[in-house]
């Protein structure tokens, strides 16, 4: 189970990094590169979500899932990164609109 939890943390962290880099690129006007990083963030979130799903499926068939601080930490990373990625998408759009007005 620890391997699954660490996969959630690792892939969420990668997605967070891509999302933050995308925001930075959008501020610089590099919208295509920013959108490319959002695609990478989505891929990483997909991997993290698949790991999370494996835990949920295990519990659904009555496997005992030991809750730990590490699991809570992984869930926190995943959820906050999902929100960050959504906000990054919105910020890219806002920066594109601002750029088109200038």
Automatic annotation (TrEMBL):
Mg(2+) binds at residue 76. GO terms for molecular function: metal ion binding; transferase activity. GO terms for biological process: phosphoenolpyruvate-dependent sugar phosphotransferase system. It comes from the Bacteria. The keyword GTP-binding does not apply. It comes from Clostridium beijerinckii (Clostridium MP). The lineage of its organism: Bacteria, Bacillati, Bacillota, Clostridia, Eubacteriales. Its EC number is 2.7.1.-. Binds 1 Mg(2+) ion per trimer. This is Lichenan-specific phosphotransferase enzyme IIA component. The active site is at residue 73. InterPro entries: PTS_IIA_lac/cel (IPR003188), PTS_IIA_lac/cel_sf (IPR036542). It is an enzyme of class 2 (transferase).
């Amino acid at each position: 189970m620890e391997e699954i939890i660490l996969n959630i943390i690792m892939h969420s962290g990668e997605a967070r990094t891509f999302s933050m880099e995308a925001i930075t690129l959008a501020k610089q006007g590099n919208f295509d590169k920013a959108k490319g990083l959002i695609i990478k963030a989505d891929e990483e979130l997909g991997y993290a979500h698949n790991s999370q799903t494996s835990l949920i499926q295990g519990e659904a068939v009555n496997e005992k899932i030991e809750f730990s601080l590490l699991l809570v930490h992984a869930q926190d990373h995943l959820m906050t990164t999902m929100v960050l990625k959504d906000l990054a998408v919105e910020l890219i759009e806002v920066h594109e609109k601002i750029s088109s007005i200038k």
